[in-house]
Specification:
- The protein is an all-alpha fold.
- The protein has two domains: 253 residues, no CATH class; 52 residues, no CATH class.
- It contains 15 helices and no strands.
- Helix 1 runs antiparallel to helix 2 and helix 8 packs antiparallel against helix 10.
- The protein is globular and about 85 Å long.
- 27% of the residues are buried.
- The C terminus is likely disordered.
Length: 321
């Protein structure tokens, strides 16, 4: 609890980013616009968690205890990125900028590189590669002997997590808003690498990084116990955090009440409910309009059914005594 370390470059970067964030919030306030308190709290909490991961005793012992190192990984690839996305710095920059600045932000957000970097087709494989390759290959061994690889790993975790959660959580300004069903599916899919790595570390009966295991303190667990504990943290901790986010997305999906299925599934829902995908004047989620359109469709179906049965009914009456 008392062991702390200093990282001048990251500390200066965090302070500068926080000052810039607060300046943008103040600029909005001068225009008579209020920034969300929850977003501001999310930013400050993200910086606090980042300090804990990079400067507290967790950072000190992450180099000698694998299970502590795994906790730092989860903080950097999941907790901090989610909080940063919840703070919505891109939307804040857009709202606090001049008209010309807003156009520039919109152009960057909707550019081809931004679309590629935030699409699940890119972010899910990136997340999977980072989780698997940094734990089940010789990366841990190299990291234990080269400090710059350790620093690169931390930055890679933060970047991979931020790009993954950017279009999934909250209402941050992104190139292409994803339907809630797809967000839910992406999070469920990302539980796979967490589970795979966690179980593999728990079942492996030899240290995957001998140099890393050799740096553990005498009072700490054995190398295999340390590695197995790290696997349990990755499995239960990673999947638990993903499931929590899935619950939050489900609540947000229910709260919005519309547009959560995507265009294709929304079209199927509209066809099944109203029987007309071409009409755009009726919103399937507008209670009264949808009710009127649904009743009209039932009436039309009933009339069609009555007309189709009329000849047989007449014939039956004519033949009756």
């Amino acid at each position: 609890m008392t062991a702390w370390t200093v990282t001048p470059l990251t500390t200066v970067s965090m302070v500068a980013a926080t000052l810039a964030y607060l300046i943008l919030v103040r600029r909005l306030a001068r225009r008579g616009q209020r920034w969300r308190r929850g977003a501001l709290a999310s930013w400050l909490l993200a910086m606090m968690v980042l300090v804990i991961a990079l400067n507290s005793g967790m950072a000190v012992y992450a180099g000698s205890l694998f299970w502590v190192h795994m906790l730092v990984h989860l903080l950097l690839i999941m907790v901090v990125p989610v909080l940063l996305v919840g703070a919505a710095p891109i939307r804040l920059l857009h709202d606090a900028s001049s008209s010309r600045g807003r156009v520039l932000v919109d152009r960057i957000v909707t550019s081809a590189p931004s679309r590629i970097l935030t699409t699940p087709v890119f972010t899910v494989p990136l997340y999977t590669a980072v989780i698997v390759l940094t734990h089940l290959t010789g990366f841990q061994q190299a990291m234990a002997t080269h400090m710059w690889i350790h620093d690169t790993e931390l930055a890679l975790y933060l970047l991979a997590g931020y790009l993954l959660f950017l279009p999934l959580i909250g209402d941050e300004l992104t190139a292409r808003p994803l339907p809630h069903l797809l967000r839910w599916a992406v999070l469920a899919l990302c539980m796979g690498p967490d589970t795979f790595v966690g179980i593999t570390l728990m079942m492996t009966d030899y240290p995957l990084a001998p140099a890393y295991a050799g740096m553990r303190p005498d009072w700490g667990p054995t190398a295999l116990t340390d590695q197995n504990t790290a696997g349990a943290i990755m499995w239960f901790g990673g999947d638990g955090l993903m499931m929590t986010l899935m619950v939050l997305i489900t609540r947000q999906w229910i709260a919005t009440g519309r547009g959560g299925l995507g265009r294709w599934l929304e079209g199927i829902r509209r066809q099944a409910t109203l029987g007309d995908t071409e009409r755009t004047s009726v919103d399937v989620d507008d209670d009264q309009a949808a009710l009127d359109a649904y009743n009209a469709r039932l009436a039309a179906l009933h009339e069609h059914d009555r007309r189709s049965r009329r000849p047989y009914s007449v014939t039956a009456r004519d033949e009756s005594p």
